[in-house]
Amino acid sequence: MKKDADYFSTEVPEHEADLVFIAKRLSDATALEAIFEEAGVDYGVEPDEYEGGVIFRTTRIGAFFYVRRGDRPRASEILLRHGYTPSLEEPPRQTGS
User: Fold this and answer.
1) I want to staple 84 with a disulfide (CB 3.0 to 4.6 A). Which of 20, 53, 78, 79 is the partner?
2) By residue range, what is the domain housing residue 54?
3) Which tens digit of pLDDT belongs to each residue from 4-53?
């Protein structure tokens, strides 16, 4: 089920938000929401910036999917089963100047 930010907590390590996937296309984001809903995975999703491109690096917007740290193994297994590669670690955040 889709959860708000207050579902995640920094007070309990297993409840901290852990980035599990960055959807770079809207079709992937909507498909992943349906997959997580069907599997009963509690998740949060928010738009954020990431860098893409090989030769010409550009800043793009993607849907960042988070689960509680304790739920990451199950969420990663579900992602792999549906052909998605889970994020290995949280990318550095962009800082405004």
Assistant:
1) 79
2) 5-81
3) 777 887 777 777 889 999 999 999 999 999 999 999 999 999 999 998 88
Q: Are 90 and 19 in contact (CB under 8 A)?
A: yes
Beta partners for residue 50, in sequence order: 60
The CATH number linked to 56 is 3.30.70
Q: The whole model's pTM is what? A: 0.82
**Among candidate residues 8, 37, 24, 94, the one with its CA nearest the CA of residue 64:** 24
Asked whether residue 97 is assigned to any structural domain, the reply reads no
Residue 19 lies in a domain: yes
Report the distance separating Cα 17 and Cα 10, nearest Å: 8
